[in-house]
Amino acid sequence: MKSTSIKRAVAAGVGAVFLAGGLVTPASAFSSGDKLSSGGVTYQVKATSCWLYLQNCSWNTSASVTKTLRFTHYSDVKVNSVTGSVTISANPSATIRNNATRLVTASRTVTAKSNAMNGTAKVSIASVSVAARSRMTAPGVTMNSGWTTW
Predict the structure, then answer these.
(1) In this structure, are residues 123 and 57 in contact, taking their beta carbons and an 8 Å threshold?
(2) 3-class DSSP state for residue 63?
(3) Other C-beta atoms lying within 10 Å of the C-beta of residue 126
(4) pTM of the model
(5) Helix (H, G, I), strand (E, B), or coil: what is residue 21?
(6) I need a surface site. Which of 37, 44, 72, 84 has the fewest CB within 10 A?
(7) What is the pLDDT along the chain (150 residues), one digit of tens a residue?
């Protein structure tokens, strides 16, 4: 009798560990990107956003070129929901526009070979998804990664 009770307690404990593990497992990510070659320079943009979240969703974007150039890198983060908005945090040197709306943009102009931005999107629990997009403008080139999810 005691053996059966102990087995049930162990089984319940193992089930709770698996359940808790499922709740704290790192989320998978959605990603999108594009690459373009023009005038002997290769331009590349990438974006990643979380797949599973409760109220915070990590995102990151990057822009790179094969030759040091002056370019502007934009990170767009949007929330898909009937109601609510997204507020993002980003690198301190990024300029954030329209925070606390459904579409927020962070931008940075650099003279370099690459630039990366990342942050956290804080959303309402009623949101369906969070998407990110990386954009770059350089002399004669404009490109974007496309949205990580709808």
Answers:
(1) yes
(2) strand
(3) 10
(4) 0.76
(5) helix
(6) 37
(7) 554 444 344 334 433 333 333 333 334 689 999 999 999 999 999 999 988 787 788 899 999 999 999 999 999 998 887 766 778 877 767 777 777 678 889 999 999 999 999 988 888 777 788 899 999 999 999 999 999 987
